[in-house]
């Protein structure tokens, strides 16, 4: 995974997406989003206590017929990339395999965020069509996995997921990632349990599986604010990542998310924003069974809902909706991964533009 895939600002300057980027930068409604996050279902087979979408789970899904139609509508809108995500577990929907085929054969880039339990059932389509698959692991051992990512009966399915990842590593044409969310939980007796001591072990396992990258991230609260962790935990993570650096090479990378950088610089849980319109909302959107939302940070927020994809055509929703209903200064105090992209779009509007580069990654 090239490091510039994390540079969301530079990705705005790709020629294929530039006409719509320019529309968004100048404050005009875009003709269609470039990237869509799609939740096929709100069902999940795991019961993670820290799940940020826990309150939204098991509240509906698209029918297989409607999900198939949505895939065709995304193609017709000239969307460039789709991320199958949730909400729930995207591979739990029996129609997801068909979505992968339809989007893949139409040439759209596809990302998949999954818990990994159902990779085997979707292996052929994931291997052939997915640009990348990121598996949420958050542990390096079955025991810790069972604490933070138990199934609905309280069991650890760590070994099953690792086995599934090995299957995909052997067959994939895209990238495979191992995601590690640094978490701590205070127990009723006042003690704390954490997964932070397994970062190195997990990175070594990711390398052994055949993953292309290992990503560490910080934990969020229900409002998407970054939760500050004790300094000793952060120091421990940094020491382990330094040791894991020996694993890096052409086929394996360590990735630090911007959320961990925020923890290290002690910027606090709030990210102030001076602008009142999210220009990125013209370039990305979220489609779920409960509605179409301005962005994934506002999943389930009725004040950021722009349509109903269960009943309405996506082109009609996009044409008739107001993506400016969310005021970032008022509504987005959390750390947004695309804050810098919004600032760059303002610069583009002022005529401060970089030279266009090459097309390399449509996931802006």
From TrEMBL:
- The organism's superkingdom is given as Bacteria
**In its UniProt entry, what is this protein called?**
Radical SAM protein
Coiled-coil residue spans: none
Q: Which InterPro entries match?
A: Aldolase_TIM (IPR013785), Radical_SAM_PqqE_MftC-like (IPR050377), rSAM (IPR007197), rSAM_sf (IPR058240)
* SUPFAM superfamilies found in the cross-reference section: Radical SAM enzymes
The record's annotation in Pfam families points to: Radical_SAM (PF04055)
This protein's record includes keyword Phosphoprotein: no
Ordered alphabetically, the record's keywords are: Iron, Iron-sulfur, Metal-binding, S-adenosyl-L-methionine
Q: Which Gene3D superfamilies match?
A: Aldolase class I
Residues annotated as domain Radical SAM core: 30-260
Q: Which CDD domains match?
A: Radical_SAM
């Amino acid at each position: 995974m090239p490091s510039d895939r994390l540079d969301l600002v530079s990705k705005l300057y790709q020629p294929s997406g530039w006409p719509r980027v320019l529309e968004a930068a100048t404050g005009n409604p875009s003709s269609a989003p470039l990237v869509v996050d799609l939740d096929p279902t709100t069902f999940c087979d795991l019961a993670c206590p820290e799940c940020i979408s826990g309150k939204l789970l098991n509240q509906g899904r698209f029918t297989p017929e409607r999900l198939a139609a949505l895939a065709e509508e995304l193609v017709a809108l000239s969307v460039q990339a789709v991320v199958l995500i949730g909400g729930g577990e995207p591979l739990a929907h029996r129609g997801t395999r068909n979505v992968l085929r339809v989007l893949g054969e139409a040439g759209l880039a596809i990302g998949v965020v999954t818990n990994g339990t159902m990779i085997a059932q979707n292996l052929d389509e994931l291997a052939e069509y997915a640009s990348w698959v990121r598996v949420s692991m958050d542990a390096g051992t079955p025991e810790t996995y069972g604490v933070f990512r138990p199934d609905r009966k309280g069991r650890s399915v760590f070994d099953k997921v690792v086995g599934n990842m090995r299957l995909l590593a052997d067959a994939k044409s895209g990238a495979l990632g191992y995601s590690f969310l640094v978490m701590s939980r205070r127990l009723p007796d006042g003690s704390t349990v954490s997964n932070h001591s397994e970062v190195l072990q997990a990175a070594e396992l990711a390398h052994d599986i055949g993953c292309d990258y290992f990503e560490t991230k910080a934990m969020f609260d229900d409002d998407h604010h970054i939760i500050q962790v004790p300094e000793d935990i952060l120091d421990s993570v940094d020491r382990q990542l330094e040791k894991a650096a020996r694993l890096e090479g052409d086929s394996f990378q360590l990735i630090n998310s911007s959320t961990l950088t925020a923890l290290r610089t002690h910027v606090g849980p709030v990210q102030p924003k001076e602008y009142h319109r999210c220009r990125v909302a013209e370039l990305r959107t979220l489609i779920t069974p409960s509605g179409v939302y301005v962005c994934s940070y506002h999943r389930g927020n009725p004040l950021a809902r722009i349509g109903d994809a269960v009943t309405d055509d996506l082109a009609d929703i996009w044409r008739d909706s107001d993506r400016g209903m969310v005021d970032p200064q008022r509504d987005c105090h959390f750390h947004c991964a695309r804050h810098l992209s919004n600032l760059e779009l303002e610069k583009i509007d002022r005529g401060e533009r970089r030279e266009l580069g090459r097309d390399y990654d449509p996931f802006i």
